[in-house]
Design a protein that fits this description.
The chain has 522 residues and is of the alpha/beta class. It has 16 helices and 21 strands. It has a seven-stranded mixed β-sheet, sandwiched between helices. Bound molecules: NADP nicotinamide-adenine-dinucleotide phosphate.
């Protein structure tokens, strides 16, 4: 999301009359009311930040509204925090780091494993929370909880396997070793589109190797982060190891950047904010990991299996209503299969049921906010003004709010905004190409390089094209590729570093070379 659009977000803050954040249940739709009441009664809606193991309000009592994008209902308020609370969280994380890093990997592993067990045991409640604050359908929300919890389990195991090295010494009286040690306090800033998984993908490996963290979830989806933090406390992860602050994003970000105690910034979000953080981290020379925006091409060759390509492109494009960084942003279709693909794809898109994610059978929830809808509208307007044809959808959904009809555009070209920038919504532009070379050129003609998809039945072509694509993730005949065991991250302006897999833990480790000299031989 661009900074301009970010400025149009739905949040606002108010001064709470009491120091306790409040629930607003009266005006809610029956479905949301039932879910919120259930979650509130079972303690899953936390309405305070977590600093040093204590649930706290903002010092000045300011609060932030958390709303359900499907209904506009106000779910509750949370503290609108800033510099003071972030500084306290950093101090607490720094203090806890001194003892947490000294535990053995096996001990930390036990705590993480317990946290994983709790996340899994409460996946229904957590999924409901995700759907309530983010809007995605329950089925997808449940998938996110499983995916998110998997990072905790995976890194609970990896905690025991942070191996160093013994290097062959060129001198016989020396022994050379490499130790791996935790980098220190980590500032983790996460977006709204995966309210759990973007957090666990960072703090799973961080906690596993002995770091402590200050997490800043998006102001739009803080509740899942807070519920996950509560479960971490219940799992015995020590107070201060996992802090959560939310509110004034730039103030929190600047405080994390300025602190010499914070040794690492890990961020998932827009490229514009990522660049700011990277520049800000230079002042204190912090380690930085960035998972930024994408502009994923999905290339369908003439020799692709039509059903596989349609199903794959549908999954790659319309998951989370098109609001993921790996969503297919441009569907490049070879001219020989173009008409057949366009018809079959539009038919499949028409079947997607739009509605409140809490309703059974819904496949497309609302967009996150009004700014997101306006962005989609402006991209479609730009495309149609330049000759694109709406094959299906193309307007706001009759359900109102921020629901948008799943849309397919034909006759799009590389001059249109929609092929150059991430639309982050349920719009699939189809672009025609003639040759393999042309497809590769079109696919790589962008500053982004996160995910790409290729549909072909020719195994040699699948290798040639995969190797030529300047992307961090490539799905061949597959539209859903993310898994905890594989490295996730981008080329070019899509980011720095990798999350998940055996590689992900390295982002939180320093290497220390040790030379033992003057060793006496017998
Ligand atoms: P965003 O506007 O960049 O926000 C991401 C996070 O940064 C939020 O917590 C936001 O806080 C915070 N933030 C905003 N301005 C900040 C500042 N000046 N200093 C510090 N923090 C700041 O992105 P988004 O709209 O939430 O997410 C969508 C973007 O994320 C898309 O571009 C998508 O491609 C990308 N994304 C990438 C990946 C990946 O793995 N590569 C995964 C998911 C999403 P508030 O929300 O409180 O303002």
């Amino acid at each position: 999301m661009s900074i301009a659009f970010a400025a149009m977000r739905r949040s606002s803050y108010t001064i709470c009359t009491t120091w306790t954040a409040t629930f607003h249940l009266r005006k809610m739709s029956a479905e949301s009311l039932a879910a919120v009441t259930r979650l509130k009664d079972s303690g899953f809606i936390k309405t305070q930040g977590l600093v040093g193991g204590k649930w706290v309000d903002a010092e000045d009592g300011k609060t932030l509204k958390v709303e359900n994008p499907a209904t506009g209902d106000l779910i509750c308020t949370v503290p609108y925090m800033g510099q003071k609370e972030t500084s306290q969280a950093i101090s607490s994380a720094y203090e806890t780091f001194q003892s947490w890093k000294k535990l053995s990997g096996a001990e930390r592993s036990k705590h993480l494993r317990k946290w994983y067990d709790l996340l899994t045991a409460h996946k229904e409640e957590l999924a409901q929370l995700v759907t309530l604050e983010q809007g995605k359908p329950m089925k997808e929300a449940l998938g996110e909880i499983t995916y998110g919890a998997d990072f905790v389990e995976f890194y609970a195991e990896e905690a025991k396997r942070v191996y160093g090295d013994l290097l062959p010494s060129p001198l016989t009286d020396r022994r050379l070793l490499v130790l791996k040690q935790p980098v220190g306090v980590v500032g983790a800033i996460t977006p709204w589109n995966f309210p759990l998984a973007m957090i666990t993908r960072k703090i799973g490996p961080a906690l596993a190797c002995g770091c402590t963290v200050v997490v800043k979830p998006s102001e739009l989806t803080p509740l899942t982060a807070l519920a996950a933090a509560e479960l971490a406390l219940q799992a015995g992860i020590p107070p201060g190891a996992f802090n959560v602050v939310m509110g004034n994003a730039s103030e929190i970000g600047d405080t994390l950047l300025a602190s010499p105690q914070v040794r690492k910034i890990t961020f998932t979000g827009s490229t514009a904010v990522g660049k700011k953080l990277m520049a800000g981290a230079a002042e204190t020379v912090k380690k930085v990991s960035l998972e930024l925006g994408g502009n994923a091409p999905c290339i369908v060759f003439d020799d692709a299996e039509l059903d596989v390509a349609v199903k794959g492109a549908l999954a790659a494009k319309f998951r989370n209503s098109g609001q993921t960084c790996v969503c297919a942003n441009r569907i490049l279709v070879q001219e020989g299969i173009y008409e057949k693909f366009a018809n079959a794809f539009a038919d499949a898109v028409q079947q997607l049921q739009v509605g409140n994610g809490l309703t059974e059978g819904v496949a497309q929830g609302p967009l996150i906010n009004e700014a997101a809808v306006q962005k989609v509208e402006s991209f479609i307007r730009d495309a149609t003004n330049k000759g694109a044809k709406v094959l299906i959808g193309g307007k706001r959904h009759s359900l109102g709010m921020t629901f948008y009809e799943p849309t397919v555009l034909g006759n799009t070209n590389t001059e249109m905004l929609i092929s150059r920038e991430e639309v982050f919504g349920p719009v699939a532009p189809l672009l025609r190409f003639k040759t393999e070379e042309e497809a590769i050129h079109m696919a790589n003609d962008t500053n982004a390089g996160l995910a790409a998809y290729v549909f072909t039945n020719d195994i040699s072509r699948s290798w040639r094209v995969t190797e030529a694509l300047e992307y961090g993730l490539v799905g061949v005949n597959e539209g859903l590729v993310s898994t905890v065991v594989a490295p996730f991250g981008g080329y070019k302006q899509s980011g720095l570093g990798r999350e998940g897999s055996k590689y992900g833990i390295d982002e939180y480790l320093e290497l220390k070379y040790v030379c033992l000299g003057n060793m006496k031989s017998a």
